[in-house]
């Protein structure tokens, strides 16, 4: 039987899974778009904060630390610390030993690869009320002609302000939840509001964990790293969507 989501702390779920790792952080990059954490066994991503700081106290101290120590930062409310925490969690969880990630279905796309998830699910969205948490560049082209809304903290054009989630999500048929919601601590509420919909937890920031089913998540759409060196270079050089150019690819796994 599934554990009611109200009794489970999603951030503890992720950091506890990462705590089983004994790996050491070899390199951590807080890039313009992506933060990457590399260990001898894995590479983890998290979307970097949309702000800047010149007074962070820990730069120069993270490499060489146990990944499980940095993973505890996921519970922090300070956005840079939480970002480092999620990237560390993903480095510990998303390794070649992760069967779920290894057996996930790779997604090929005729659109830019960062939109592959939406192209994959598009045939199932016809006639459905679809909500996407966060704006993805080019999403309007992929979902043209469908009934969809984008909820965004900084709305553009026809986007809806993210506070409308309380009213929009309970009426939706499909909801795509960005894993960045783990950083800003909105995931728990978004998953609760979406419990009557088919839900997809997605993005490079996604930990490959079957336990997301406890939060009524139906699909996990994360990334498989094809070339860790290239991914790290792209993130270090300020890359965003080009992470998917010879670095990583989307894959999907059905949970329920």
Please supply descriptive tags for the structure shown above.
single chain, alpha/beta, Enolase-like, domain 1, Rossmann fold, 2 domains, 8-stranded mixed β-sheet, 3-stranded antiparallel β-sheet, 9 helices, disordered N terminus
Summarize the structure.
With 256 residues, the protein is an alpha/beta fold.
Which outline best applies?
globular
List the uncertain runs: 1-8
Structural class: alpha/beta
What would the average pLDDT be, to the nearest integer? Answer: 94
Strand content: 15-25%
Number of domains: 2
Per CATH, which architecture of the largest domain?
3-Layer(aba) Sandwich
Spatial order of the strands forming the largest sheet: 4-11-10-9-8-5-6-7
| Top-tier CATH class of the largest domain | Alpha Beta
Largest sheet: 8 strands, mixed
CATH fold topology of the largest domain: Rossmann fold
Tell me the number of helical segments per DSSP (H or I, 4 or more residues long).
9
Number of strands: 11
